[in-house]
Specification:
Length: 303
Amino acid sequence: MDELIRISDEVIAALRDGRPIVALETSVVAQGLPPPANLESARRCAQVVRDGGAVPAAIGIIEGRILVGMSDAELQRLGDPARKPLKAGARELAAICAQKRDAGTTVSATCAVAARVGIRVFATGGIGGVHRRLDALEPGDVSADLAEIARHRVCVVCAGPKIILDVPATFELLETLGVPVWSYRSDELPAFYCGSGLRAEQAFASAVQVAQALRAHWEVLESPTGVVLTVQPPIALPRAEIEAALLPALREAARRKLPGKEVTPFLLGALSKATAGRTQEANLALLENNATTATEISRALSA
Ligand code: PSU
Ligand code: MN
């Protein structure tokens, strides 16, 4: 595997010793956030993982090699829009490798790679899911994130589905796919930087309890699925205001008939513009907070 997948020395050593590791995605660096916030966020997430006593493993693709544990220079390269990095979902990994391209990895691709190398805990901002449709003629769009979380034994620590999505439909599809959705220290499921208004069916008060449940799910029940662990965003924005800003962005996205992969970055960018950067600030805060929680889970799982 060393030809196509390069695991950093630090991550190899942690895997060998069974020490805690937290995988981090890089589509948020390559597509989700504009510079310089993208790189600052990647650095801060890696730092909070280290401060918490785990090894950060940013996953991404450079010149067709899948990197597990990226250096700062490698992250800088992926974070430079001028190099036009691709957005890699799990199904695109092999082709992107063969084409020797650069790519940020989405939740779907990061889950697949993390599971492949034996990393069990992964932090992201908000997962993809079932997209909203303004009318029945708009094509349906369901993120590959959901199907890949369902196929890989990884705990995805996130602030729920992104608010741009049909959030209730996304949670329903996770149920259909057999993916447990557990809430961390809250009775409400989050929807990125907003509340969802939906009650969490299963909530946990501590990382130790989450680790126990993960072991039961994977080792005792031998379930092949991943698990979504939702964490409340540290900066919560008023739902009504976000919905009001989102509607014209959804209309504009439909009018432009954007290719599927461009929809999420377009909508996130439009929300940030409409709120004078407040959604981006909230996005950065929740990314870092999720990395902190993932570190606690990873430590409890390794203990
Ligand atoms: N979380 C964020 N910002 C992002 C993403 C997640 O805070 O940009 C990315 C993730 O990589 C996720 C992807 O997998 O958006 C979903 O894209 P799509 O809806 O096209 O599947
Ligand atoms: Mn899509």
